[in-house]
Design brief:
Elements (H helix, E strand, L loop, with lengths): L1 H5 L3 H10 L2 H12 L3 E7 L2 E9 L2 E11 L2 E6 L4 H6 L3 H12 L15 E4 L4 H13 L12 E2 L3 E8 L2 E8 L2 E2 L11 E2 L2 H13 L1 E3 L4 E4 L2 H8 L3
Parallel strand pairs: 6-10
Antiparallel strand pairs: 1-2, 1-5, 2-3, 3-4, 7-8, 8-9, 8-12, 11-12
Helix pairs in contact: 3-5
């Protein structure tokens, strides 16, 4: 079942639960597992795909990766307003399949200047259709490359709250939220900066209301305070 496979990707599943009811998420994961995403390609921050929901019913889907914690989806089955309210199963299927293909891992197995393509088609007409969409995909500005390493100004806010410890980390004034899509996460050239964010992701619990990581374990608190 789709729910069993989902256990292998808890972070992605957590993100999808923000976007749609679990019944829709489960249906979308099922489409991906059943091989219904017949095309999938990525150019910079744009993923395009085709979902074959029925024998003669294909849905084109575009995912625009805005940041390491935000993706916008567009599908032929829904209006923009409907997609903003909740994702459709076709978009869920494409996001899940893109994760299977490693599109969210650093460099996706390619050099940072290259694009990644995974095409599963049955004829030249389908391949031509994919390439046409790839050519039309809007690239990110060169200066906004997801793989650019910098020396950010780092600010850490530590806030004791009862038996919990709240922590916020800022890179150049931007708060570091959970990174669901690692290849688009901001990276520092200083190892300790990246280590701190990774430790918070592994040991902390992100609170969306307070925009803060909370630590409940003394062991984890000591591990975090070391890099800080």
């Amino acid at each position: 079942m789709a729910t069993v496979s989902a256990e292998n990707k808890p972070k992605l599943l957590q993100y999808l639960k923000r976007l749609a009811p679990f019944s829709i998420v489960d249906k979308g994961i099922g489409l991906a597992i059943d091989g219904k995403v017949v095309e999938c390609s990525k150019v910079n921050s744009t993923i395009t795909a085709m979902v074959r929901a029925a024998e003669d019913d294909d849905f084109s889907v575009t995912l625009q990766i805005v940041s390491a914690s935000l993706v916008e989806a567009y599908c032929r089955c829904s209006t923009r307003e409907e997609m903003e309210e909740q994702w459709c199963p076709h978009s869920v299927a494409v996001l899940w399949r893109a994760s299977d293909l490693g599109f969210f891992e650093p460099h996706s197995g390619f050099a940072s200047t290259e694009s990644a393509f995974r095409i599963n088609t049955s004829g030249p007409e389908e391949i031509a259709s994919v390439l046409e969409r790839v050519i039309q995909a809007a690239p990110l500005p060169e200066s906004a490359s997801a793989h650019t390493y910098q020396d950010p100004s780092v600010e850490v806010v530590v806030s004791p709250s009862g038996d919990r410890l709240g922590i916020q980390v800022f890179f150049d004034g931007d708060i570091q939220e959970p990174h669901f899509f690692e290849s688009f996460a901001p990276r520092s050239s200083r190892t300790r900066d990246n280590l701190l964010v990774q430790l918070l992701e592994d040991a902390g619990s992100w609170d969306e209301q307070w925009e803060m990581w909370f630590l409940n374990s003394t062991h984890h608190t000591e591990s975090i305070l070391g890099p800080i």
